[in-house]
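Thread: Modeling a multi-component assembly for a lab meeting

Hi all, long-time lurker, first post. My supervisor asked me to bring a structural picture of a complex we are working on to next week's group meeting, and I have zero experience with this. I have the sequence lines for every component (661 residues in total). Could someone generate the structure of the whole assembly? Inputs are pasted exactly as I received them:
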Amino acid sequence: MRETNVVIRGTGVVAEHDVDLRGLGPHGVARGCDDDALKAHIGKRGIRYKDRATRLALAAAKLAMQQAGLTVDGYQDLDDASCAVIVASCFGNVDTVLASAAQIAAEGSSVLSPMDLPNASANVVPATLAIWFGLRGPNLLVANGPGSGTDALLFASNMIRTGSVRRVLVCGTEARQPAIDPLFAQAGQAGREPADIAAAVVLERDEAAAAFPVRLALSGPGTPVLLEHAAGGARMDAAASPLAGAPVLARSHGAASILSVVSAWDALCKAAAPRPHTLCREAA
Amino acid sequence: MKGMHIVGADMWTAHGHGRRHVFDALLDGQIAVGPLIHLDRARYRCQHAYEIGAGTDGTQDCRNTGWLRVVVAGALAESQVELGRERVAVLVGTGLREQPTLEKWQQDEAGFTLDDWDYRRAIQEELGHPVPVYTVVNACAASLCCLPLASDMLELDQFDAVVVAGTDAISSSMYGLLDRANSVPPDVIQPFDRHRKGVLMGEGAAAIVLRRAAAPTVPVLGILTAVVQSCDARNETAPDPVGVETSMRLAHRAAGVGPAEIDVVMAHGTGTQLNDDTEAQALSALFGGAAANVFLSGVKGMTGHTAGASGLINLITGLEILRSGTVPPAPGLNEPVDDAAGFRTAGGSGNTVNRIQINAFGFGGVNAVSILERAHA
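Re: Modeling a multi-component assembly
Sure thing. I ran the full set together rather than chain by chain. Output:
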C-alpha cells in the first residue's frame, strides 16, 4: 500500500502591525489586530460577541481557505463532512473566564451576559470555524503548552494518513491576555506574554499533489515537522524556518509551530519559483 | 484496525474513587448531589452541585489535576503496561482545565502557575516517566473526542498503549453562566424526564488504557469497535438534531452494526430541555421499533454533569454493565419524554449485554459516539 502523503493547500497569518515576520508574505498575511482591523479582515457581521482569539482565527482561516481555492471570497458553507478543524490555543478564552469570574465575585451571577456562555468553553474557536465554513468532520481544541501547534499538526496528519478525513483546517491562535501577565513574570518567562496572532494551514491528502507542491511530513510524536517541495525536492525543517528565533514565536504559544510551518512553506515556495505565490494560486 | 482493547480503567465521581465503588453506588441509585460547597452560594441563584470531596478539600488547589493523576495511575496499574519499556501516550479530555484554580488565583494572587494550565507536568510527575501528554479542551464531549485520536496513534504504530482520560471540576465562570442561562435553578438532574429543570454541574475524572491487541495474559475489559467524532457546524451551544443523529449513524456504520444489535445506550442525557429532547428524538428516529429491547441509561442523574469526564464515566460504567449484566437504575426519571418512552429506561438486568453505545455531545456542536463490545474469551 502506498503511503498517504499530506500536502499544504493554503496558509494564512494575521499579526500585529509591528511584529517582525522575517519576510513572510506578502500574500496570505494580514496586518493589524485591533477591533477595526479584525472587522475589516473578517468582513462579515456576526462577530460582536466573538472573543479576540476567535476573531483572529476567523481572519487567518479565511486567508488560508481562500488561498487553498476552497472559498472564493470570505466564508461559505462547504458542507464538508470530511474536513476536520483542529485549533491550537493555550490561552484563547482566558479573558472571558476571568472577566466572568470577577463579575461573579463582585456582584453575583445575575449580572453576567448570557452572550458570554459560548466563550466560556475554549473550543468555541474550532466550533466557530466549523460553523462559518460548514466543516462537519472532527473538531478539536488542543491546549498543551508551547508544543500545542505541533500536536495539532500531528493529530491532523494522523487523521489524513489513516483516511479518517480528507482535509484538515489547522489553526493556531492567541490573543493578548493582560490579566495573566503576572503569571509569566512569576515563572521567569517575562517576554512570553501572548501576542495577538493567528496562523492557519489547510492540509490535505495528496491526491492533487501536482497542484499543491509542498508536502508536510510528520511521522510521529517528537519527530521534526519537515516540509518538502516537489519541484527540486528542497526540504526544510519547520524549526529552522526563516522565523526561527524571532521574538514573535516566544509570544505565539499555540500559534507558534503553525507560524513556523507557514514560514517554511513560504520560503520553499519562494525558492522554487520567482513568483511562488502566483504559482500556488494558479495551481489551486 | 478492528477495535481497540481496553486493558485498564478507573474513575472518580462525587460518589468516591474506584470503578467498582462508583458502579455499586450507581446500582444503588445514589444521587450524589448536595448544597454547593466550593463556591460562594451567595453569588448564585442555583445552590446545588455534585461535588467531590465535599467538606474535606475546600481549600485545595488543582483538584481536577489531583483526581486525574490518581485515575491515570490506577488504570495503568491494572493494564500491566510497562512504562519505560513500552511507548505510552496520555490524552486528556477536559472542558474547563484548571479554570477553577486560575479563577481562585485571580482572587488570591496565589496557588496557580503556568505549569498547572495543562496536565503534562502533573502526569509525568505521577508516572515518573516523560510520557507525551496531550490536553484536548472539547467541552462536554472532550474525553470521548480523544478516542479517535488514540485510534489513529495506535493504527499508525506511534505508541504501544494510549491512556485516554477525562477530568473536570466546577469553575465559577461556567457555574455562573449556566446559572444565568437557566430559567429555574435545578436542585437535581432528571435526564429525559418531562419535568426536568435543567443541568447541574458535577465533578469527576476517568481513565482507560487502550491497546491494539492485548497479550493473552492480560484481561480485556471491553473492545471499542467504533470511535467517531463529528461536528454539527450549526450553533455554538445548541445541539442540532441532524448532526446528533448523523454521529450515531456514523458509529453504527463504523462498527458494522444496526440498532437491533445494540443492547444498551449510555446517553449523554444532561437534563436540559433542549439537549434531552434533541438526543431522545435522534435515538427514537434511529432505533425505531428496536427500542423496546434497548436499555436507555446514563449516569448524570446520579453523578451530575461531569463535563469533559462524563463520556468516559459513561463508558466505564458500560464496562461494568458488560461485566455484571446489570444496568443501573434511573432515579429522577419518573415520566419519560415521548421519544424516550419506547426504550427500557428503568435499568435492571435482562438478556446478556454484548454491545453498548456511548454518546457524548458538547458545546460547539461536537458529537462523539463510541460502540463498546464484550471481549469474547
